[in-house]
Design brief:
434 residues; mainly beta; Methylamine Dehydrogenase, Chain H; five-stranded antiparallel β-sheet; four-stranded antiparallel β-sheet; globular; disordered C terminus; Reg_chr_condens; Ub_ligase/GEF_domain
Length: 434
């Protein structure tokens, strides 16, 4: 039997084409990243892809307690040190560093230093952070009001969402351009882009301030999640509700309709954890059975084929396992079982599945290197590449290359915490691109 101190994956995150894992070890925690690295989202100091998990050197022994992905950026929370780190594509201020530069290794955010963080969510280009005291901060792109500040002005560093003062925010979620939160009373608020009903107020308008979702009166919601343009809530009893964009059957309602207010999902009961992808949704029930529906062009639903899943299907390849963690990116999915096995499937063009190749997978494939009993933390530490922090304007993202990496036999010392890079100008053409 594995010992409690044996390394295992305790946290997952998926971006558009990259992945993060948080590993517990006897000496602390370790953040790993792999997949697409073009925008610095892997945190290794360069713009290269990685087809296998690699430890993020600057976060070794930093006490990371959670990891999070936006489309092309990443974040980590170090609970003990009360620090929040961000890195990757910096356009629109989504990194919260006070400027719009790309950042290629994790950078601590001074505006959040010393705060205990309860929940973090990353959208395509905006970020939400809820503190342990129930305050909500937002930053990044805001053209649809997704920061919840009552305006459409982008935020380059964390701003307090004052509209929710008096409420204790306990969890947050981000879609592409909309946001969600749940309060200690189980209320669900949504804001931002609302064309397909993903705000849940019965309308199709953007909302620049947090708006109470309709149809959940008397329901105490315990967790929220978002897909690209759809919203998910799960109550204390495990009942699941979805609303928003449904053209690919991602709402798990058995149809391709948009829904403008929350509607209960009947196909899956006693839901324990959920994950919204770009156009698909995954849900694991209290028994650890994993279910999927939605867009499946690259096998991201894990049901063994590439046809869209309109009626919710169980992921039969994991029928003998009990899934306890699941995360979805744009086109790929990852899961961890109660015995510590790690599985990934879906799109793999940038190596985001971690299987040392670029072959897509229609069914879950175990990654032994991240499964309990197979994680070699000594090797991961030796392979970590220390680099000097740099940030570049998006227009110059390939201008800086790290000088060298340590020799294969060297175990590098951990550097001091990184500092915030200086601001750089961004051309208007870049700001209009995303």
């Amino acid at each position: 039997m594995a010992q409690d101190t044996e390394p295992e994956v305790i946290g997952l995150a998926c971006g558009s084409s990259h992945s993060l894992a948080l590993i517990s070890t006897p000496s602390g925690s370790m953040v790993l990243s792999w997949g697409r690295g073009e925008d610095g989202q892997l945190g290794h100091g360069d713009a290269e892809d990685r087809q296998e998990p690699q430890a993020v050197f600057s976060l070794l022994h930093r006490g990371a307690t959670s990891v999070h992905c936006g489309a092309e950026y990443s974040m980590a929370v170090a609970g003990g040190d009360k620090q929040v780190y961000s890195w990757g594509w910096g356009d629109f201020g989504r990194l919260g560093t006070g400027d719009v530069k790309d950042v290629f290794i994790p950078c601590p955010l001074p505006a959040l230093a010393g705060r205990r963080v309860a929940s973090v969510a990353c959208g395509d280009t905006h970020t939400l952070v809820a503190t342990a005291e129930g305050q909500l901060f937002a930053f990044g792109r805001n053209q649809n009001g997704q920061c919840g500040l009552g305006s459409i002005q982008d935020c380059l560093e964390p701003q307090l969402v004052t509209a929710l003062q008096g409420k204790e925010v306990v969890a947050v979620a981000c879609g592409a351009e909309h946001s969600m939160c749940v309060t200690s009373e189980g209320e669900v608020y949504c804001w931002g882009w609302g064309r397909y009903g993903n705000i849940g107020d019965g309308e199709s308008q953007d909302r620049h301030l947090p708006t109470l979702a309709k149809g959940l009166e008397g329901v105490k919601v315990a967790q929220v999640n978002c897909g690209w343009r759809h919203s998910i809530a799960v109550d204390e009893g495990g009942a699941m509700y979805t609303w928003g964009w449904g053209a690919y059957a991602q709402l798990m309602q058995g149809d391709r309709k948009d829904h403008y207010v929350p509607k209960r999902v009947e196909a899956v009961q006693q839901v324990a954890t959920v994950a919204g992808g770009w156009r698909h949704t995954m849900a694991a029930d209290s028994q650890g059975r994993l279910f999927a529906s939605g867009w499946n062009k690259f096998g991201q639903c894990g049901v063994g084929h590439n046809e869209d899943v309109v009626r919710v299907q169980q992921v039969e390849a994991l029928a003998g396992e009990r899934v306890v963690q699941v995360k979805s990116g744009w086109k790929h999915t990852m899961a961890v079982t109660h015995t510590g096995k790690f599985f990934s499937w879906g799109r793999n063009v940038n190596g985001q599945l971690g299987h040392s190749g670029m072959q897509d997978s229609n069914s879950p494939v175990e990654l032994a290197a991240l499964s309990r009993g197979g994680i070699n933390t000594d090797a991961l530490t030796r392979q970590a590449q220390p680099v000097v922090l740099y940030g570049v304007a998006p227009s110059d993202r390939y201008a800086v290359v790290p000088d060298s990496a340590p020799g294969a036999d060297e175990v590098p010392s951990v550097p001091e915490a990184a500092t915030v890079p200086q601001a750089g100008a961004v051309p208007d053409s870049k700001r209009q691109k995303v």
